[in-house]
Amino acid sequence: MCGGGDCGDPFFIPQESRCSSNSTVCGRDGRTYTSECQAHANYVAVDYRGPCRGVGIDGGSCPSVTCSMTQDTGCVGVDSSGWCCGRVCGGGIVMAWSTRWLEVSSVVLPHHRPLTVTAMMSSLAALVTVSECEVRGHLTLEGHLLVLVTPTASHSPSPPPLVSAACVVEAERLVGVIRARSPRLVAALPAAALTLAAPAHTSAASACSIRPSSGLFVAAFLVMFLVPKYISK
């Protein structure tokens, strides 16, 4: 699965979202977009205004970056190494997919072109049931899909705590949908290819902040697959 901007995405469905189209922005995926609107249309959260020019270490700030779009750092949210402007308020999910399911999706869906992150995010957006929440997402350096379930742009830059909390609950519901292989998920190509999901959000006071990483998937795999098999013996 490749980035939406790289593959001529035939499944592109822009999100309706209040945004600014007059300046470049750096996405949370480390790519520069011509405008906030373009980033949102590709389901990518914005890190800061201007072209990408810095990499945060362990969620730290970047000396060359002004974080005018930073949200409340005390909220329940998602942190990730590489981001310059801190956590994103709302729920987060780290996901992995089945290559076999992706192959099936590429045959069933029209055009028979490579599936993109944008197509996957568009499919996931259809599963969100809370109107005040929207999804953003991108591939991590480890090759997993990081999905952010955040308050809509109408609540930016300081979403009400209740709205952020609702998005956290919605993210956890989506984790359950994927783990249970819900019929609604299976019918939602290409999201049906998603076979593993784990929450990626934490409270700001958490001593052990969970960041999207391969270690998270190892733990999730052990809990979901190996432990039940061991107990059943």
TrEMBL record:
Entry superkingdom: Eukaryota
Residue stretches making up the Kazal-like domain: 3-54
InterPro entries: Kazal_dom, Kazal_dom_sf, RECK
Naturally occurring in which organism (per UniProt): Halocaridina rubra
Protein name from the UniProt record: Kazal-like domain-containing protein
Gene3D superfamilies per the UniProt record, alphabetical: 3.30.60.30
Gene Ontology molecular functions: metalloendopeptidase inhibitor activity
Gene Ontology BP term (one): extracellular matrix organization
One Pfam short name: Kazal_2
PANTHER family: REVERSION-INDUCING CYSTEINE-RICH PROTEIN WITH KAZAL MOTIFS, SERINE PROTEASE INHIBITOR
A single Gene Ontology CC term: plasma membrane
Record lineage: Eukaryota, Metazoa, Ecdysozoa, Arthropoda, Crustacea
